[in-house]
Specification:
A 4-stranded antiparallel beta sheet has the order 1-2-3-4, with helices on one face. The protein contains 5 helices and 4 strands, in the order αββαααββα. The chain is globular, with a radius of gyration of 18 Å. It has helices at about 1-15, 40-55, 60-65, 85-95, 120-150; strands at about 25-30, 30-35, 95-100, 105. Helices cover about 50% and strands about 15% of the residues.
Length: about 160
């Protein structure tokens, strides 16, 4: 009873408090995958890589479409990732994605860098990467980036 009174007072003062969404589900080619939020430090590293390297390769256009907001490209370097760096970046992103199977969740990429699932197509991997990035950074690109840049999200 006391807890519900405290919750009621909190709602009065602050409005409805939204819970942070830490996972989402996506279905690709009839397979169900769970997207999970990145660890904050890994997320910052991946975001840095997106701004400095990955966006010029067209991933930025797919990500813009997925998050529903234009992603600025003006300060992007022309540095190109080596094959090993690009593979490692994909593994970092996919390390937070799991396939939902009858026995439970199975990682798409295991901690040792090997595939945890079988019979996955390259096109499905790209879709998972874009979905995971959109899930992790939609708030940043839609709201946080606009406030960081001092603009309205409608102008992005």
């Amino acid at each position: 009873m006391e807890n519900s009174i405290e919750n009621s007072k909190a709602k009065e003062l602050f409005g409805e408090i939204k819970k942070r969404k830490v996972e989402d589900t996506i279905i690709i080619e009839g397979r169900t995958f769970k997207l999970h939020k990145f660890d904050p430090l890994l997320g910052n590293y991946i975001l840095l890589q997106l701004f400095t390297v990955a966006l010029p390769f067209g991933i930025g256009d797919m990500l813009s479409s997925a998050v529903g907001s234009e992603i600025p490209k003006n300060n992007v370097s022309s540095k190109q990732l080596s094959k090993a760096e690009f593979i490692e970046l994909q593994k970092d992103i996919l390390g937070s994605v799991f396939e939902s199977l009858p026995a439970g969740e199975t990682p798409v990429i295991r901690p040792n860098g090997t595939y945890g699932i079988s019979e996955i197509k390259g096109s499905s991997i790209i879709q998972l990467i874009v979905a995971e990035l959109a899930f992790n950074y939609t708030d940043f690109f839609a709201e946080g980036l606009s406030s960081f840049l001092g603009t309205s999200s409608q102008n992005l």
